[in-house]
Amino acid sequence: MKLLVIGMNYAPEQTGIAPFTTELCEHLTRRGHTVTVATTFPHYPEWKTHECYAGMFAHTERRNGVTLKRKWVMLPRRASALGRVLYDTLLGLGALLSGLPGGQYDLILGVAPPIQVGVAARLLARRHGVPYVMWVQDLALEAAMSVGMMRASALVRAAKRVEQWTYDGAARVLVVARSFMENLAHKGVPDAKLRYLPDWVDAKFIGGGTNGNGFRRSVGLDDDSFVVLHSGNMGAKQQLQNVLNAARELGSQPNIAFVLVGEGSEKDGLITHARRDGLRNVLFLPLVPRDELPHLMATADLLVLNQHPDMVEGVIPSKLLTYMAAARPIVVAAHPDSEAARQVQAAGCGVWVEPNQPKALAHAVSELARDPAARQRLGERGRQFVGEYFSRERLLRAYETELLSVTG
Known about the structure:
Elements (H helix, E strand, L loop, with lengths): L1 E5 L11 H13 L3 E7 L17 E6 L2 E6 L9 H19 L7 E6 L3 H13 L3 E5 L3 H7 L7 H16 L2 E4 L2 H9 L7 E3 L6 H4 L8 H4 L7 E6 L9 H9 L6 E6 L5 H10 L5 E4 L7 H7 L2 E5 L12 H7 L4 E4 L5 H9 L2 E4 L4 H12 L2 H18 L2 H16 L1
Helix pairs in contact: 2-3, 3-5, 9-14, 12-15
């Protein structure tokens, strides 16, 4: 199979959608398929082009057998609807230009968001006379409206029509959350097109770290600290101000340390918030290299997953499976009907609290800090759950089978 993949993120980016797109493409290449990826330069979650690609407009490279065609995209300086629409549109245009030449493809895979990827996928499918598949990782419009980035308007109505147009032409629509299937079915996508194929996690890799790995001391934490960890993006969707307010509630318990690891559009504001409130129990760290991720996870005593209170069906946090695989308990502060809350409840691997209620979050942290037996029980349930339902090897094979079924 000759496959063209269109997407926003790819390695060396380490968070969000990038690891899943990268692992699928490299799996298909190892299986003997020819894979080309039309994308932009790595920039997420810092929203700054990686230094080694600075100043480039177009670049083609090979990475672990996969051909990458990168085109420049103007990155928004701040989170705004207009900036994001421009970014998404330029991304779709760049992918369209990358996909026009290069010989015949058998199938095109569009990784959404953004929906402009679907536009490029449909146009290129028509150009090459082949089918295309949409792989929906987030419901971008719902997510943007949930956090207030976009409001009901003519622009949103137009975006919904474009979104529907991309689904209408797709041979398949793959979704990573069951709630996404409900959403798209309600929008009129036929059941025959929809397939639920979740993301995956390499539990052997994530669970390979040890607590006594020196990571705590390397960042100035005592061995007896109770570490509450957030790892990943720090953006509007995460609303991590709630975590900082919970840390303030627990300021009288100096052994509890909140460690926020990652990058994102809200990070600078969060650091300012912590300094203003004098939060000595909060530590900010940059993203760690991938080979250090198991040690970072093993360092945690408790993992926190915080979401905007209005975020219901737009996203499923990619970090959630990593959290579960780490065999650590999870406190999830999110809407009760969100995919994150549903998954934690289904796995029985953590505690749910009301979103945007720092006292409730602080109470849950304090209770679990005093109950090591409960922490161990919850952590083991999470690891067992991902092993049963989110096996990397099994799901990569399932994705390959599904894509091959479209090509016949």
